[in-house]
Structures are given as C-alpha cells and as structure tokens.
Amino acid sequence: MGRTAPRRRTSRVTSDLSPSVVRMLSRQRPRWRGVSHRWAFFLSLPIGVVEVVLAHGGMAKVALALFAVGGSFMFGVSALVHLRPWPPARYHRLIQLDHTAIYVCIAAQAAPVGLLILTGRLRVAVLAVLAVGALAGVILEWIPFHRPKGLMNTIFLTLGWFPVVLLPWIYRGTNLLNFALLLAGGACYTAGALVVGAMRPDPWPATFGYHEIWHVLVIVAVVLHSVMACRLAGIL
C-alpha cells in the first residue's frame, strides 16, 4: 500500500501539465538540447545592434529593431527552457513562456515585410492582423486548459504563413532574391514544425534528436529572413 501513494502524487502532478510537457518530460534528454539556441541567443544580440545601426532610414531601423528583439527573445527563452532539467511545474511555465516568445517572434519578425515592402492600408492591415493574432495566441497559451496535440504548432504555422495571401503584393514590392529568401525561411520553419510534431527523424536520441533538428531549422530560417531584412534595409 505504501508504494501506491507516490504513483498517485505523480499522477496528480502530470494531470496538471499539458500533453506536450508530459511528452517532453517522459523522453530522453539529448546532450545537445538547447545548445544551438544558446549560441544563437548570444550571437543575435551584437548582430541585432549592428544591423539597427547600419540600417538606412528611420523606418528600416524600426523594422530591424523589432526583428532583432523578436529573434533574441525567442532564442533566449528557448535557451533558458532547455538549460537544464526543471521540476515539472516550472517546466510547464517555461514551455508556456517559450510558446509566448514564438508568438512575439512571429509578429516582430514580420516587421521588415510589413514596413519595408508593403505600403498604405495593406501594411497596417497585415501588421494589425499579426499583432492581434500573436496576442490571441499568447492569451490562449496561458488559459488553463489541456491543448490537443498539435494545436500550438497549427496556430504557429497558420499565423506564420498568413502573409502568403499577400504574395503577389510582396513579390511586386521587392525583388526575386528577397522573395526567395522569405519563402525559404518560411519553408524551414514549416519543416521544423513538422519534425517536432511528428518527433521524427530522431537520429541520435542521446545526443542530437528531433528537437535539435527543429532548433537548427529555426536558426536557418531566422538567418535567411535576417539576410532579407538587411537587404530591404539597404545594408547588403
């Protein structure tokens, strides 16, 4: 009888956690978990400052500042989440903060497209929809209910790919290389979301697994979009 109490306590603890957190806690923690985003965070800080300083014009500086803050915030929170094993309840809150940072990043890193490619009412509409969508996602993230598996990834992808409806205007407002960089970055985000959703491929679970692939794809996506933003701002 004495052995059943700990199991009941564990059950009560896990019942308060989202399925994604339970899944992460139940799997082996790879040695490289969070390392790439830790590096990305520290590198993003000076790079972001340099980009803002070199940007041509006030609008470009605002766009690159938003882009840099969004990326650094996302990388920094991700690095914190995966810094070490956390108690389940704290890990749950950190995952919520991690998802919040992703929403902020999606909205903030759309600034170069909204401010430097689109114009007029279209610019206002796109930035407003992304800001409201990100805010709604953050609110949904912190509402205490168990989210179905895949819900957050679906929202991330929907919000991130919202500008696809404006591709003709984006294409006309920039050149082919910038357009290709935008699509390539979006493709990397999408591929990463599919990997983390399917938890495959998981090549070396003890060292570098599916989640690490997702992190690397996020870094590649940010780099591609950063190059596009720098080109739009007259830096490259």
TrEMBL record:
One GO cellular component term noted in the UniProt record for this chain: membrane
Bilayer topology term: Multi-pass membrane protein
Protein's cellular compartments: Membrane
Main location: membrane
Membrane-crossing residue ranges in chain numbering: 62-81, 101-118, 124-143, 150-171, 177-201, 213-234
Protein keywords: Membrane, Transmembrane, Transmembrane helix
Protein name: Unannotated protein
